[in-house]
């Protein structure tokens, strides 16, 4: 099957990079294919109650910005040879953000790594790839 609009999810993990390589390869095989690479910012949940709350460590925003800049540079490096590539930085819960962006861009394929969370978080919260596979209306290529 030939795809025209591919969305690749990228969180900086090894498997996400492997998935991005697959997405770039698919896009290169068919001239005119559009590739959108998304990175989803997921800010920590802040809890607070009368007199109690989360105090953000000093310099945290700068560390996050530096980390995101490094991720975007890696994405740019991989997508540079493509004629039709874009990078989108989204904010929110990863799976719903990926699905909404894929729908908004009329993507006909979603490519992503199989794991990004630690084992404990995955058991407690479920994996992003599993959520996307279960709710996507287009094919999803999960790279291991």
UniProtKB/TrEMBL annotation:
SUPFAM superfamilies xref list: Adenine nucleotide alpha hydrolases-like
Gene3D superfamilies linked: HUPs
InterPro entries: Rossmann-like_a/b/a_fold (IPR014729), Universal_stress_UspA (IPR006015), UspA (IPR006016)
Span of domain UspA: 3-144
Entry's family note: Belongs to the universal stress protein A family.
PANTHER family: STRESS RESPONSE PROTEIN NHAX, UNIVERSAL STRESS PROTEIN UP12
Protein name according to UniProt: Universal stress protein
């Amino acid at each position: 099957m030939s795809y025209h609009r591919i969305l690749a999810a990228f969180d900086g993990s090894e498997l996400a990079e492997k998935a991005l390589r697959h997405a770039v390869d698919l896009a290169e095989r068919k001239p005119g294919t559009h590739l959108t690479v998304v990175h989803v910012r997921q800010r920590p949940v802040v809890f607070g109650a009368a007199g109690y709350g989360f105090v953000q460590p000093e310099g945290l925003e700068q560390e996050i910005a530096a980390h995101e800049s490094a991720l975007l540079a890696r994405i740019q490096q991989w997508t540079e040879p493509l004629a039709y590539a874009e990078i989108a930085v989204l904010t929110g819960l990863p799976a719903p953000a990926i699905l909404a962006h894929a729908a908004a861009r009329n993507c006909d394929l979603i490519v992503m790594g199989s794991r990004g969370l630690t084992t404990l978080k995955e058991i407690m919260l479920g994996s992003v790839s599993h959520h996307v596979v279960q709710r996507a209306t287009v094919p999803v290529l999960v790279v291991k």
